[in-house]
Amino acid sequence: MRTATLILILLFLPFSAAAEQLPAPLSQSLKRAGLNEEHVGIFVQEVNAKTPVLAYGADRPLNPASTMKLLTTYVGLELLGPAFTWKTEFYAHGAIEREVLSGDLVIKGYGNPKLTLENFWLMLRELRQRGIRDIRGDLVLDRGYFMVLDTDPGQFDNEPQRPYNVAPDALLLNFKSIRLLFIPDSEKKTVKVVADPLQSQLEIVNGLTLIDEPCGEWKPKLVSDIQVTVMSTRITLNGGYPLGCGEQTWYVALFGHPQYVYSVFKELWQELGGTLKGAVREAETPAEARLIFSGESATLGEAVRDINKWSNNVMARQLFLTIGAEATQSPATAEQSAQAINQWLAQKGLQFPELVLENGAGLSRTERISAKHLGMLLIRAYQSPLMPELIASLPLIAVDGTMKKRLNGEDVTGRGHIKTGSLEDVRAIAGYMLDHKGRMMVVVCLVNHPRAGDAEPLQDALLQWVYQRK
Q1: Could you say which DSSP state residue 395 is in?
Q2: Do 266 and 124 touch, CB atoms closer than 8 A?
Q3: Domains within the chain, CATH numbers bracketed
């Protein structure tokens, strides 16, 4: 018995040592980036194999940045189903006669992650077709599907106006963002700035000058000052705008959710020939209110593609909270969502003791997972009937999404579906690679270090090594 055990150990040790030893091209890339083993977690395994071909620092808990979206989207697909949709309901709280609503219009949100201006306009058009023109009461917003506390939008990185920092909301509209459109006029030598959607509380002070230069990095040439008060918001723009840029856009998030919804609703409703007499307020939908219309979002399968291809943090956070809301049938909190995901992992026999979830999007300093467990998740996902939905949502190397500009012209072009992740001090990749022999490989590389930005050559070398290996 002892002899048999010893033989098994001896057989296993050479493989284990090989799996943990970094191949020479990767070791050289690691050194050139100024990184050490403790800063990196790498895991590579064929989807049908029992053991990895490479596991280097794979057990170490690391910040995965946006590769954490793989966990959120896969669990969402499994728990909710790819055909899941989000509702946006419109209720009348009062009588309707001759196109006049003598009361309030209530909008109840269920966390639609992609309720755009176009979709919202179509919903309001449906309301008009159902016989409402004039609303004599208030616009009432029911945002109770999520229990989200007011947070500082600049808490993460001191960039409160960046759209990616928009907090999740049950009635999220157009990512709560305003598009500033810069339109140069070479004859008049001016730059027109247009805000869309137009907000009555927004004032733009345009001090831009048009300069005859190629475009390049145009935003740093602008000097912007944003002043927010209770009654209004002012954007002052100065500096030079290069003529070579043509028309450009800049997205900013300046208003609270209720104020934003109210302004957009009023603008679109007036364009449709309607009027709104009252103000905006928040409340639960009254029991006696009558449902007029229920709008429906695109499917989760479509939303997952937006989340992963373009690493949409706001949509990922909406999905994360939806998982908690649907699991508990109560207003969702981040803690409930994390608990629902951990319960699902346990049911699947996946034990990830190092896992730390904050918002499920990777836009976090505290979220953690190991390269090994992220790889195991991807292996389990490959064995799922929903595998095509997940893989199709990932960026294709040198083709689209966040991988479009990487490894162009290399033999790995189009051979891998890879999710990327990027934060200050973090660079990550995770996904699937079809190697030159037609074997489907799971690849994960997490790097946490102040010089993580120099790790992309290491990750690109890893993808090429996986593709070319014997």
Answers
A1: P
A2: no
A3: 18-80+301-468 (3.40.710.10), 87-154+166-171+257-298 (3.50.80.20), 178-252 (no CATH)
Token pair belonging to 431: 């996904």
pLDDT tens, residue by residue, 239-248: 999 999 999 9
Under 8 Å between Cβ of 231 and 201: yes
Return the CA Rg of the chain: 26
Tell me which amino acid residue 367 is. Answer: E
Report DSSP letters for 71-133, one per residue. Answer: HHHHHHHHHH-TT---EEEEEEEEEEETTEEEEEEEEEE---TT--HHHHHHHHHHHHHTT--
Amino acid 98 reads R
Report the pLDDT averaged over residues 167-189.
Answer: 95
Cα–Cα distance, 331 to 339 (Å, whole number)? 14
Comparing C-alpha atoms, which of 235, 285, 282 is closest to residue 262? Answer: 282
Distance CA 402, CA 300 (A): 20
State residue 149's pLDDT score.
66
Question: Residue 386, class by beta-carbon neighbours within 10 Å (0-12 exposed, 13-18 middle, 19+ buried)?
Answer: middle
Q: What is the pLDDT of residues 200-242, one digit of tens each?
A: 889 999 999 999 999 999 998 899 998 877 668 899 999 999 9
Beta strand residue intervals within 301-379, DSSP E: 369-370
CA pair distance 160, 154, nearest whole angstrom:
4
Q: What is the DSSP string of 281-312?
A: EE-PPPTT-EEEEEEE---HHHHHHHHHHTT-
Burial class (CB in 10 A: 0-12, 13-18, 19+), 467: buried
Question: Mind listing the pLDDT tens digit for each residue in 4-55?
Answer: 443 333 333 334 455 678 999 999 999 999 998 889 999 999 999 999 999 9
Write the single-letter amino acid at 392.
Answer: A
Selection from 240, 236, 249 nearest residue 210 by Cα: 240
Return the H-helix or E-strand segment holding 434.
strand 426-434
Query: What DSSP state is assigned to residue 4?
Result: H
The two tokens of residue 440 are: 């489907």
Record the pTM: 0.93
C-alpha separations of 130 from 100, 103, 123, 292, 385 in Å: 11, 16, 11, 8, 41
Residue given tokens 């057989």 in the structure block: 11
